[in-house]
Specification:
Oligomer: single chain
Bound molecules: NADP nicotinamide-adenine-dinucleotide phosphate, glyoxylic acid
CATH architecture of the largest domain: 3-Layer(aba) Sandwich
Structural class: alpha/beta
Low-confidence stretches: none
CATH topology of the largest domain: Rossmann fold
CATH superfamily of the largest domain: NAD(P)-binding Rossmann-like Domain
Helix content: 25-40%
Strand order of the largest sheet: 8-7-6-9-10-11-12
Length: about 300
């Protein structure tokens, strides 16, 4: 069995060694143009040439949760794409989002500013009931984040395309433009985006949708930069309808030096780090799935197989 590795954003050697250790019977190689045909691919944002040349793949494993970059390529007919299914990301995402929500709700920025000026001052405690948090996307990451927020007793609202039941979370469903989506937005003050980027969800955080949040709303985008219309967010913050935003993902990454998000006092940016791919967990997951396929399991038995029609 031959495995080819083509990930444009990470040091290959530890991955090659880790995959070889986990699958001792396999030949694991770094892809280069003209490389021999492989049975399985481990990829992140490979060039088009990769898929044009690798025509014998039984499956391609994406080393991230989001497959939007991969699905932009011309993919070989019938080759299943398998994304990471949590692999240590959901707990990181829960940490990140809970941190941001709590930081905003408890006004820690304001306390830090007071302390910097030597001021010992109290703010009136806020009521959780005034801070409903809406989570867009109740998949692997969104569900974990919703449950974590519910543990802190925030009123949590969740929205997904198909109906879901998550303990402690009021779930809404339906497509964009459905009554369920409108009700979800109206019920939310803090909005967390954990949707995959697809043609439907592109630009979903725009003037129209964000204006439907409760006044003083706060936006947390940890999914993809393409979900957010940057100018619409800034206009709603500057008008006072939104209190601010924390953004981990951007249309162009790294965020260009001249982008207004860098210096806006009500916008916090982080460098696409809310949930990182953890190498050991990811290798264990991918190797387990390759072993299962080699032992005759049908592809439908694996978690994380992407539906190309849905785009996630
Ligand atoms: P997932 O398990 O596939 O979940 C996606 C969720 O979004 C599902 O609940 C799905 O609804 C919902 N959804 C998709 N399209 C929808 C639509 N048009 N209308 C309503 N709901 C829709 O994905 P995941 O593993 O949780 O990851 C989510 C995204 O997080 C990834 O695609 C990636 O872009 C992003 N991410 C970011 C980072 C980072 O570091 N910033 C790290 C990892 C992932 P159904 O269940 O009804 O289909
Ligand atoms: C990171 O953004 C991922 O999709 O895993």
């Amino acid at each position: 069995m031959r495995i080819t590795y083509c990930c444009t954003d990470s040091r290959p050697q530890p991955w090659l060694e880790g995959l070889s250790r986990a699958l001792p019977d396999a030949t694991v190689e770094l892809w280069a143009p003209g490389a021999p045909q492989a049975d399985y691919a481990v990829v992140w944002a490979p060039p088009q040439q990769f898929f044009d040349e690798q025509v014998a793949l039984k499956a391609a494993f994406n080393t991230g949760a989001g497959v939007d970059a991969l699905l932009k390529l011309r993919l070989p007919e019938g080759v299943p794409i398998v994304r990471l299914d949590d692999a240590g990301m959901s707990v990181q995402m829960a940490e990140y989002v809970c941190h941001v929500v709590i930081r905003h709700f408890r006004e820690f920025d304001a306390y830090e500013a007071d302390v910097a000026e030597g001021r010992w001052s109290f703010r009136k405690p806020r009521l959780r009931s005034d801070w409903p948090v809406g989570v867009m996307g109740l998949g692997v990451l969104g569900e974990r984040v919703s449950r974590a927020l519910a543990q802190f007793e925030f009123p949590v609202k969740g929205w997904s395309r198909s109906p879901k039941a998550v303990e402690g979370v009021q779930c809404f469903s339906g497509d964009i433009g459905s009554a369920g989506f409108k009700e979800f937005l109206a019920a939310s003050r803090v909005l967390v985006c954990l949707l995959p980027l697809t043609p439907e969800t592109q630009n979903i955080l725009n003037r129209d949708t964000l204006a439907q949040l409760q006044p003083g709303g706060y936006v947390i985008n940890v999914a993809r930069g393409g979900h957010l219309v940057d100018e619409d967010l800034l206009a709603l913050i500057d008008s006072g309808h939104l209190a601010g935003a924390t953004l981990d993902v951007f249309r162009t990454e790294p965020l260009p030096a001249e982008h207004p998000f860098w210096s806006h006092p009500k916008v916090t940016v982080t460098p696409h780090t809310s949930a990182r791919t953890l190498r050991d967990e990811s290798i264990a997951q991918i190797a387990g799935k390759i072993r299962a396929l080699q032992n005759g399991a049908p592809i439908t038995a694996l978690a994380g197989v992407v539906d190309p029609q849905k785009g996630y």
